Each structure stands twice: as structure tokens, then as C-alpha cells.
Amino acid sequence: MRSRRRVLGAVHIVVTAGIALAAEATPPTEFAAEREEMVARQIEARGIRDPRVLEAMRRVPRHRFVPDDEAAYAYEDRPLPIGSGQTISQPYIVAAMTEAAGIGPGESVLEIGTGSGYQAAVLAELGARVHSIEIVPELARRARKTLESEGYGRVVVIEGNGWLGLPDKAPFDRILVTAAPDRVPEALVEQLRVGGRMVLPVGENDQWLRVLEKTPDGVRERELFPVRFVPMVK
Ligand code: SAH
């Protein structure tokens, strides 16, 4: 069958026998060796063990979630600029937060701080139903586009302020916050299901990653390790 590939702006559309198919995702082999090495050296070597998380990190094409001129560095052990003064987190941090959240298939997950959309894609790989809120319109628009073209079109990206959560879709099984508030946002605790879990960095200059569990008797919290995220806008 003859197929023709047309590029319309940044959207790739495959036209086969006159029918426009969904945009083609990145071939899994692209940067596969770099991804494999990233997982082995940065993630497994630092103690992340959940095989589902490791597999998700091997699959999501991180280089597609960063600006073109950063793609060559996408698998390095550090955050990278994504425009609008924001960054995509270091791969290890994404893996650690995902493992701490303990995502199961079909669970409903809220992410605050879509950024590039990369963390949201990792959550989607684990079978979660993801809603992600981003306050910078340009980033929300771009993340939506990347997620769609990489096959994660089921992730719902919402432009807005995550301090208030997403009451319409609550309660959530899991909430991940990828910008740092100075204290745990009350609305997010309310929107967590009993039995649910939230992973978030908290603090101003001195930030710690926290895991918060909502039990029938109240909220239990523990701290994981110090981190450095951009501040969460109020
Ligand atoms: N998870 C992202 C990285 C997050 S960077 C990724 O995988 O690429 C933090 C993001 O949080 C930034 O894009 C920033 O604009 C956004 N942000 C900060 N405060 C916010 C708020 N109150 N509501 C929603 N998004 C917010």
C-alpha cells in the first residue's frame, strides 16, 4: 500500500489511500540504547525496583518531550529547560515519584504541573487515567500536542491553577505535584480518595519530597529526600 507522509506545521499526518490516520508515534528504537542506559545507571542503580516503573521509563521517548535543540541531552542525569523558564525534571526524580505513588492500571491520577508532559506520559504508560493541570498556556498547548503525537492522547491537559485541584473530576486515587508549594494545598487533600496517596515536594528554599496517605483516621505523611522544584504558583 502506498502511503504518503505530509507535515502540516508540527503535526504529522499519515495519509494512506486517502484516509488520514492518527499521527505516528516515535519508533521505539529511536534513542532506545540511551534510554536503556538511563534506566540502568540513573534509576535502577539508585534503588528504583518496581519493574513496571522501569519499563515505563524505558518506553517513553523523553527526547520528544524536550525542545529540539535539547533532544541530544534528553537522557542525561539532570533536568533540562523546556521554555517559559520551566524545566523537565531529572529522570530519576520522575521515576522516584512514580514509584512512591504506586500507580495501578485504571487508577485516576491528577498531576499538577504538566510542563513538558513527560511525567504524564509515564503515568499513562502505567495504565493510569491522567488529568494534568498546567498554569502556563504555552506549555499546556505544547504538552497536549506532544502527548497526542506520541500516542498518549488520552491524557487530559487542563490549563489552569493547580492550587485548586480539579473538583469536577475528584476524588483521585493518586495526586502528583511537580512544582513546590510552601505547604500542602488543602484542596488537593480534599480531592484525594480515602486510601489514596499524594506525592509532592514541599518547602521554599529547603524542599523535601513528601508522601501523604489519606486513611479513614486521617492523613499520614512521611518525607523521602530533599529536592529542588520550581515554586508552585499560588
Ligand atoms: N512534570 C513536568 C515538569 C514540571 S515543571 C514534566 O514532566 O515535564 C513544573 C511545572 O509546574 C511548570 O510547567 C509550571 O508552569 C507548573 N506550575 C507551577 N505552578 C503551577 C500551578 N499552580 N498550577 C499548575 N501548574 C503549575
Structure description:
The chain has one domain: Rossmann fold. The strands form three sheets. It has a seven-stranded mixed β-sheet. α1 runs antiparallel to α2 (51-59) and α1 (32-44) packs across α3 (91-101). It is α/β, with parallel strands linked by helices and 234 residues long. The N and C termini lie far apart (54 Å). The protein has six helices and twelve strands. Residues 86-89, 112-113, 115-116, 118-119, 133-136, 139, 161-163, 178-179, 230, 232-233 line the site of S-adenosyl-L-homocysteine. The site of S-adenosyl-L-homocysteine (SAH) has 23 residues, from β5, α4 and β7.
Total discrete domains: 1
Oligomerization status of the protein chains: single chain
Which structural class should the secondary elements be placed in? alpha/beta
Main sheet: strands, sense, barrel: 7 strands, mixed
Provide the residue-averaged pLDDT.
Answer: 92
* Order of H and E elements: EEEHHEEHEHEHEEHEEE
- CATH-level-4 superfamily name: Vaccinia Virus protein VP39
Beta strands, count: 12
CATH class: Alpha Beta
Which small compounds were modeled alongside the protein?
A: S-adenosyl-L-homocysteine
Question: Which percent bin holds the helix content?
Answer: 25-40%
CATH architecture level-2 label: 3-Layer(aba) Sandwich
Helical region count?
A: 6
Radius of gyration: 18 Å
Strand content: 25-35%
Strand order of the largest sheet: 8-7-6-9-10-11-12
Which spans have pLDDT < 50 for at least 5 consecutive residues?
A: 1-21
Looking at the structure, the CATH topology is Rossmann fold
